[in-house]
Design goal:
Layout: E1 10-13, E2 20-23, H1 32-42, H2 44-67, E3 72-76, H3 77-82, E4 92-95, E5 101-105, E6 108-114, E7 117-122, H4 124-127
Antiparallel strand pairs: 1-2, 3-7, 4-5, 5-6, 6-7
């Protein structure tokens, strides 16, 4: 008896490993390892999706960074595609006063300038 309340220990079956155990009424898993494993398995699809998106973003950023070491350069779309750049994945957009749209992968930016050429830039405010 604890502060006037009874604590009942019940026989249960762990939903992760199937082992039987005794525990409080609200205890669901036989151990912390099983609890963590169960929640990791439940969130696997969400985590895999996020992991894949982050992998694509890191790859895009590295491609832009490698092609643009000095902060501003013009490259052909084919050069970006040959390195595996995915134009559908970026982290933000910036629209200039004249309506031009720069897309950014973190601090590395790109914008089409016509004839399948892109200007690559680095957003200085991220770096400073």
């Amino acid at each position: 008896m604890l502060h006037g309340k009874f604590i009942f220990k019940m026989k249960k079956k762990c939903p992760e490993c199937g082992e039987e155990f005794y525990g409080r009424v609200d205890k669901k898993y036989c151990s912390a390892d099983c609890r963590i494993s169960h929640h990791n398995n439940m969130n696997k699809d969400k985590n895999n999706f996020m992991r894949n998106v982050n992998r694509i973003l890191r790859k895009n950023r590295k491609i832009l960074s490698d092609l643009n070491p000095d902060g501003k350069i013009t490259v052909h779309k084919d050069k970006l595609l040959a390195k595996g750049f995915n134009f559908s994945y970026f982290t933000s957009e910036y629209i200039t006063k004249t309506g031009k749209v720069y897309k950014y992968v973190y601090e590395q930016g790109f914008m089409p300038i016509g004839n399948d050429f892109y200007i690559l830039v680095i957003k200085k405010s991220y770096v400073e």
